[in-house]
Amino acid sequence: MKQNKRLKPAAISIPSEKINEAAEAIALAFHTENFTRTLLNLENKRVLPYMIKAFELQIKTNILSGFPVWTVIKDNKVAGVAVIKPPGRRKISLHKTAHLLYRFIKILPIFRFMRIKNIPLLKSLSRKPSFVPEKHSTLDILAVNPSFQGQGVGRILFEKLKNDSFKKNNCSGIYLLTGNESNWKIYNHMGFKTILKRKKKNFTAYHMFLENENNKGDTNGH
């Protein structure tokens, strides 16, 4: 029997052989993100390779910490990536730390392309509010490869990370930070509430939170 509709791709735990490609997808997606554009001189073409290495390091750090990294594969290509940190901290072994440190040294040249004068501004805008409920997950990255935008990839990743996070009884909700109004609208549509909006020098940072409705009894703030 013929099927007229193509199967909907699923969000899966990222395969090791796709980590570099996922890092590239994130770097390309973040090229239009206000925090990235304010921090880095993206007009210099030499920045992109270091961005890819930096995101590759972030993905591997999460994996070695035991944190989930989800991806959607379409046509054998990385269509999107989600990096989320669950509540609590996990220690990384000394051997794994040394491995990450070696990779960090490899991306040190990226500091040459940073807009150092903007770091205090970004630090003040991105400071997490003290009243975010305890035991929350943090959505570090939700990026869709520009070649696959508008195909529902972001929604697939979001549903996966939300369901996975909310299954854990100790998760009060998901916190995120974005500097783009367009992203703010998308997250608002997904159910996130704006808990704080900071604005300085024509830059707006949106701090957002999605409450775990199944865990309302444990959402005491700091």
CA radius of gyration: 18 Å
| Structural domain tally | 1
Strand content: 15-25%
What is the CATH architecture annotation? 3-Layer(aba) Sandwich
Task: Tell me the number of helical segments per DSSP (H or I, 4 or more residues long).
Answer: 7
Mean pLDDT over all positions: 87
Count of DSSP strands: 7
- The SSE string, one letter per element, is EHHHEEHHEHEHEE
Class by alpha and beta content? alpha+beta
Portion of residues within helices: 25-40%
Q: Which CATH class?
A: Alpha Beta
Low-confidence stretches: 218-222
Largest sheet, strands/sense/barrel: 7 strands, mixed
Terminus-to-terminus distance: 57 Å
For this structure, the CATH topology is: Aminopeptidase
Describe this structure in words.
This protein has helices at residues 19-29, 34-39, 47-64, 94-106, 119-126, 153-166, 181-189, and strands at 11-13, 69-74, 77-85, 137-144, 173-178, 193-200, 203-211. With 222 residues, the chain is an alpha+beta fold. The chain has one domain: Gcn5-related N-acetyltransferase (GNAT) (Aminopeptidase, 3-Layer(aba) Sandwich). The chain has a seven-stranded mixed beta sheet, with helices on both faces. Helix 6 links the parallel strand 4 and strand 5 (173-178). The radius of gyration is 18 Å and the shape is globular. The termini are far apart. The model is unreliable at 218-222 (pLDDT under 50).
